[in-house]
Amino acid sequence: MADVAIDWVLDGAPMQTVVHLDVPEGAGRDTPLIVLLHGTDGDVNHMSDPGVSPGFNFEHVREGTVRNRGWRAYPNVGYWSIGLDPEVPVEGWASFLTSRGFPVLNYSQIDPRGRLTRAAPELIAVLDALDAARTGSPPPSGLEAVQERPVVLIGHSRGGILARLALVQLAARGAPLLERITSCVTLHAPNQGSTLANVAQSVARLADGWRRLIDDHVPGDQRPWAAEAIDDLLEMIQTQAGVPAFADFTIGSGTLAAIASREPVQGVEYYTFGGTSPIVVRLRGWAFTPTSVIPQFHDPPFFWSTFYQTLLALPPRDIPIPELAWGVGDILTAASRTRLPFSVHTDNPINHAQALWDQRLKIQVHAILLRAPLPQPLVVTCVTPDGTDSGRAIDAFGGPSPDGRMWHLSLQDALVLAEVDDGLWVRHPERGLSKLELVRMKSGTTYLRARRGSPRLSDMPRCELAR
């Protein structure tokens, strides 16, 4: 990884942005450079190491998931454990993408709590630096390897709006760089505004009014302790709710309207993702399965296994705010408001922070980068045998998308999607459609199979798809 300094000018003042560039060995010249853009109040860690910040990396497990606990000498019933979702290590977007061979550029935006009027010129300066060679100017030292690559913008939350704003501004000036920007991917961005942004603005104005009322009518040397405490509370509320960036994301904001009036930018493919789970943390239990009390011909004779149960989730159900409603929002944005009229859209049952590390979302975006977006539902029509096992082992799955393009999914990624119940289906030319099942052996081995009565996957047509 290299740190590259990019000089630019804002309102006549010299500025400098340091970007982190990572180009994996063996990345082809046609492999796109991914520019990552974090959200409000974020920094470079949000897109590279989200376990550091914001840190909401709680483990989320699908209801009914079974985990094996091993052979034991005696039976057991009740609960193996009850407690809050534990924190788990997560992988950010930067390392995921570089591990799949994509060069990545990531940086901390100027004024991450502020309006986009400062962040957009900075992003455009970064993009101009990626195209310096075309204008005959020497590129900043360290950016030589990415001067001719295609470019993809991926923005989380505010970063998605920032990407869209930069694109329309580049289009307005007819920037040649647009010929290289192939896609814009927004992750849980309030593309059509957020109710909570409107609420935050109202709360901030109310807190400001109360603070001014106290200042005007209660002199500082005469304030009782309670008045000072209230003043401190109102100041905290104003600090949290009065983030200037929220003004760009209110429903009906001038910023969003101005961007939408000039979209889509010709030649750019737009992909939007939303979340439908506002759950942050859950009180959960691992309950013993009935088979944990049945002796078997084994020494020791009892095999313990447990299944997952949600006992209490926060926030609770039925909150009458779209962003906080189960199946509707992700805490900060409603899934319906992350869509664009011209985008290819996908919703996942994850919250706003999980978009920084969710493996299912990464797999979906990876498919987009391979120019073969995964269809919904995901229907397998052919398989690729494992090159190390010419027998029944499957290495990858594939099939056509609605637009005729072929998609390719490794066994590892298919197991991830099956683990979260993404709905993988298999279509056999003679026996029709059936769902793939995730099977977990007592040894811990997992594999996929078609439901009973369906053809074996090893009997499916073979497909050799570009990786």
What is the string of SSEs from the N terminus onward? EEEHEEHEHHEHEHHHHEEEEHEEEEHEEE
CATH architecture label name of the domain at 2-55 and 90-193 and 252-275: 3-Layer(aba) Sandwich
The helix tally amounts to: 11
Helix content: 25-40%
Low-confidence stretches: none
Level-1 CATH class name of the domain at 2-55 and 90-193 and 252-275: Alpha Beta
CATH level-4 homologous superfamily of the domain at 2-55 and 90-193 and 252-275: Alpha/Beta hydrolase fold, catalytic domain
Structural class: alpha/beta
- Average pLDDT reading: 87
Structure at a glance:
This protein is an alpha/beta fold and 467 residues long. It contains eleven helices and 19 strands.
Walk me through the structure.
InterPro entries: AB_hydrolase_fold. This protein is α/β, with parallel strands linked by helices and 467 residues long. Among the domains are: 2-55 and 90-193 and 252-275, 3-Layer(aba) Sandwich (Rossmann fold), CATH 3.40.50; 195-244; 374-467, no CATH class. 25% of the residues lie in helices and 27% in strands. It has helices at 44-48, 93-99, 116-130, 132-135, 158-172, 195-217, 225-241, 246-249, 254-260, 359-369, 411-419, and strands at residues 2-10, 13-22, 33-37, 66-72, 79-84, 104-107, 151-156, 181-187, 269-275, 281-288, 302-314, 344-348, 378-380, 382-385, 394-400, 406-410, 424-428, 432-440, 446-450. Strand 17 and strand 18 form a beta hairpin.
